[in-house]
Amino acid sequence: MTGAFSLAGKTALVTGANAGLGRGMAVALAAAGADIVAVGRRAPDETEAAVAALGRRFVFVAADLAAPRAAAGIVADALRAFESVDVLVNNAGIIRRQDAVAFDEPDWDEVLDVNLKSVFFLSQAVARRLIEQRRPGKIINVASMLSFQGGVRVASYTASKSGVAGLTKLLANEWAPHRINVNAIAPGYFVTDNTTALRADAKRNAEILSRIPAGRWGEPADLAGAAVFLASPASDYVHGVILPVDGGWLAR
Predict the structure, then answer these.
(1) Structure letter (DSSP) for residue 149
(2) For the chain: N or C, fewer Cβ within 10 A?
(3) What is the pLDDT of residues 194-244, one digit of tens each?
(4) Which residues are catalytic?
(5) Rounded (to 5) percent helix, strand, coil in the chain
(6) What is the pLDDT of residues 94-115, one digit of tens each?
(7) CB-based contacts of 237: which residues, under 8 Å, 6+ apart?
(8) CATH number of 3-247
């Protein structure tokens, strides 16, 4: 790929790239020319094969994003393999479902640690290095429809994704002078492990589909264009945006 959407010569670090949305975005960035650092607890063999088939380099960094001080070690490992991390995609996320009156503290803490705390500290670690190197960079956070809406039975997830939206705007404000763009993609209802229970519930599945103007659940490949745009020079003057990719859900 050439021109404003080319990622040739860039390295992208993608969390949760072993499946679903993370795999879809990692492969899309590789197709645009980026080498990939995949971060997670499980080796992303299928993602690695897809990236290699595109002729791009691939490195896996095993890490628990909820672990204290994980971010610094992740970035250090990435920089042992590549000169820089030019693009960061904070995709990894988990969800816990329970009525708010019964929601327990361990589930709250685990979701906030992975979905919000790790996003901040990994962004910080990447930004520190970019500022030190005087290099431009792109940070793409993965928000949610629940960055805009409340939802039900997902208290910690809603809190974390609302936090991701606010954090995206704050970091965009602080780091734009350093030529670091911080934006977010807010996927709608996609076919992922996190939505298995919803899709298996015939009544809830029908209710969701009836509201999506596109008439279908999203597939990971549907995020490719948004991810490449926000990672590439085409978005150099885009800061602090929460971009819905939702089949029209929010417009209904």
Answers:
(1) S
(2) C
(3) 788 889 999 999 999 999 999 999 999 999 999 999 999 999 999 999 999
(4) 157
(5) 50, 15, 30
(6) 999 999 999 999 999 999 999 9
(7) none
(8) 3.40.50.720
